[in-house]
């Protein structure tokens, strides 16, 4: 895992909610990278692409990933400095990608003045959301509720969670253009809060211990039954 980076609006304490929604994918595209808390904490995809319009953000990522110790390396990460909209408009999608989008907040939902060197006005939100609405692959968008989002992402599913800011607790919304998946790309963060995650983790460890303790023939029969009864779905899902 790449070392954490503190970043305004960063998802350092809430990335689990986003990862717990991610269907299996081959290519991961995070379009407004910032400190990239989601990318840093999710299981890497075969290929990952991180984009940010701020050259200082991208330079910091390049410095950190140039010659990392092996335990902080992130496999096959392509960094792009540029506008998300231009990248998405040009990219040749195959459908096995997952796009995660965490743009600067809509000006009317912000409690703080401008915090990013590259920021968004209302027209930028309109351009981005109109483009996202047409993408032919699973997309997850983070933000605070606003009528513009409901209008331009009409028909998308939503999930909300509480997130601490430096001053209070606010409700963040995730908009996504697919049904909540039965199979996750990364199931290590399952659970809505710390306690639930601990409980699920321990339950999984107990199950794994029982499988490990089986004699090899019994384990093989069990693995065969599991495979026949619950075949693993292909990587991409349809939108
Ligand atoms: C809300 S922050 C992302 C925080 C990130 N999710 C994290 O965990 O740290 C938004 C980012 O979008 C970048 N940005 C602003 N306009 C952009 C654009 N048109 N295309 C790509 N990135 C942009 C900003 O530089 C900033 O880093």
UniProtKB/TrEMBL annotation:
SUPFAM superfamilies linked to this entry: S-adenosyl-L-methionine-dependent methyltransferases
Task: Tell me if S-adenosyl-L-methionine is a UniProt keyword of this record.
Answer: yes
What keywords tag this UniProt record? Answer: Methyltransferase, S-adenosyl-L-methionine, Transferase
Gene Ontology MF annotations: S-adenosyl-L-methionine binding; sequence-specific DNA binding; site-specific DNA-methyltransferase (adenine-specific) activity
Keyword 4Fe-4S assigned to the entry: answer is no
Provide the leader sequence positions.
none
| One GO-annotated biological process of the protein | DNA restriction-modification system
Q: Per its UniProt record, what PANTHER family does this chain match?
A: DNA ADENINE METHYLASE (PTHR30481)
Record protein name field: Upf31.0
Q: Which organism is it from?
A: Roseateles depolymerans
């Amino acid at each position: 895992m790449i070392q954490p980076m503190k970043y305004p609006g960063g998802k350092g304490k809430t990335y689990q909610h986003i990862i717990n929604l991610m269907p299996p994918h081959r290519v991961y595209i995070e379009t407004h990278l910032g400190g990239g808390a989601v990318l840093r904490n999710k299981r890497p995809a075969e290929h990952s692409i991180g984009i940010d319009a701020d050259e200082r953000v991208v330079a910091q990522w390049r410095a950190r990933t140039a010659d990392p110790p092996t335990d902080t390396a992130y496999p096959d990460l392509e960094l792009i400095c540029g506008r998300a909209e231009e990248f998405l408009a040009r990219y040749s999608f195959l459908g096995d990608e997952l796009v995660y989008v965490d743009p600067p907040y809509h000006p009317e939902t912000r409690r703080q003045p401008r915090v990013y060197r590259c920021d968004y006005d209302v027209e930028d939100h309109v351009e981005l959301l109109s483009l996202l609405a047409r993408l032919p692959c699973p997309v997850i968008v983070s933000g605070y509720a606003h009528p513009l989002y409901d209008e331009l992402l009409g028909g998308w599913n939503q999930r909300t969670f509480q997130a601490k800011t430096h001053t209070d607790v606010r409700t963040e919304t995730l908009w996504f253009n697919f049904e909540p998946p039965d199979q996750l790309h990364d199931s290590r963060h399952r659970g809505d809060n710390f306690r639930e995650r601990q409980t699920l983790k321990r339950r999984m460890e107990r199950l794994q211990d029982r499988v490990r303790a089986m004699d090899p023939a019994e384990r093989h029969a069990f693995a065969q039954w599991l495979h026949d009864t619950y075949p693993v779905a292909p990587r991409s899902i349809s939108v």
